[in-house]
Specification:
With 157 residues, the chain is α+β, with helices and mostly antiparallel strands. It contains 2 helices and 7 strands. It has helices at 2-44, 137-156, and strands spanning 51-54, 59-63, 68-73, 79-84, 88-97, 105-114, 122-128.
């Protein structure tokens, strides 16, 4: 009786724990793959990104010495842009609520206004309810605020 109970217990443990371990492994694998892709693109653009952010819809890398920001969009076939922070005048986090419920966030973006062209900002979209399948809007808002702070510090320097 003890052997069968132990085997049943181990079997149930495996049924519940192994899928969770697999999901953790899969997430870590995606994270490492994204970091490798970001580092490869950084190297191709002669950047040394010391501060990075990786999500399923956006990868950011900041090169403080060159004062450049690398933006990679994995969902758009790894399209990337390099922004010169010395050409940016101001930055701000922009949230757009749903029209029928002002408490829920539909979109979070970081708007970068150029020194010459202050009317049309360059947007870095951190959260869009139409595109994101798994992200929490409040979490992405916190990340956008963090990057706004990082960029703002580089603009004033």
């Amino acid at each position: 009786m003890d052997t069968s109970s132990t085997l049943i217990g181990l079997g149930l443990l495996a049924v519940f724990v192994l899928p969770i371990l697999y999901l953790i492994w899969q997430q870590n694998h995606k994270q490492k793959k994204g970091l490798k892709s970001l580092k490869d693109i950084s190297t191709k653009n002669k950047l040394h990104t010391e501060i990075v952010e990786i999500s399923s819809t956006l990868m950011l890398g900041l090169d403080s010495k060159a004062n450049k920001l690398l933006i990679v969009e994995p969902i758009n076939n790894m399209q990337h842009r390099v922004l010169y922070l010395n050409k940016i005048g101001t930055s701000s986090v922009n949230t757009m609520p749903f029209p029928d419920n002002r408490k829920l966030i539909k979109r979070v973006s970081l708007d970068l206004f150029g020194i010459q062209d202050k009317n049309s900002p360059m947007e870095i979209i951190f959260y869009d309810d139409d595109d994101n399948e798994n992200h929490n809007a409040a979490e992405r808002l916190a990340v956008a605020k963090k990057w706004n702070q990082l960029i703002s510090e580089r603009l004033s320097a």
